[in-house]
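User: My collaborator sent over this chain with a note saying "see what the structure looks like." That's all I know about it. Can you take a look?
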Amino acid sequence: MADVSEFDSPSTASDYAAARPHYPDELFETLDRLQAGHLNGSRVYDVAAGTGIASRQLAERGARVVALELSGAMLAKLAADSPGIRVVQGSAHALPFADRSADMITCAQAWHWMDKARAVAEARRVLRPGGLLAIWWNQTVYDADWERAHADRIAEAAPGWRRFSATEVTEDYGQTPGLVPRTFTFAWQRTIDLEKYLRYLASRSYIAQLGDAMPDFLDRERRMLAEQFPDGQVIERFHTILLAAG
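Assistant: Without extra context I'll predict from the sequence alone. Here is the result:
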């Protein structure tokens, strides 16, 4: 699992909450369909919930959500912004929940940090018969010229990062012992203010790790992206990838 310290600062949690994208309606419609129309009223444990983006979207659709998060800073922001959602500190590797107590376990934008075998074993322990494990990511699209140039600059600044295609994400993250998921992909986009987009960049783990070099990187991106989007509104495209296993 990731070193929680990467996400355990109030500034990172604030950037995460302010600028991270939500998830498309089609994803939740698919979850509802996979639950035979019973997402409303189902007991959902949202694991590695961050600041609660997915938790709140699930709760808005009637799910009875418990949000689990390990980082103290993320947990505090989650609790402050998510009235009515029960918030618990803990790890996907040792879920603090009773056997067969959940209709669904979800994990948004975080499965790649897990020891997959341990997390799946815990999910299977906690899920009721017929329950669903659903994991998903917003995967940024880097196909257009400006998107590729932007990705190249990120890779130059953070050599440990590389762009993944939707196929690579599905093949990599879906390879978990005992997990045979169904795969769904949803294409969508958002328009976001440039300064807010820069906060989104700052919330990414590989950018946050730049430390003292991060302000210069963000200043350079501000200049480059302002040339591409002179009205200050960045159009960002995503493929949201859902892996769902019963």
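A starting point for your reply to your collaborator: Residues 1-5 have pLDDT under 50 and may be disordered.
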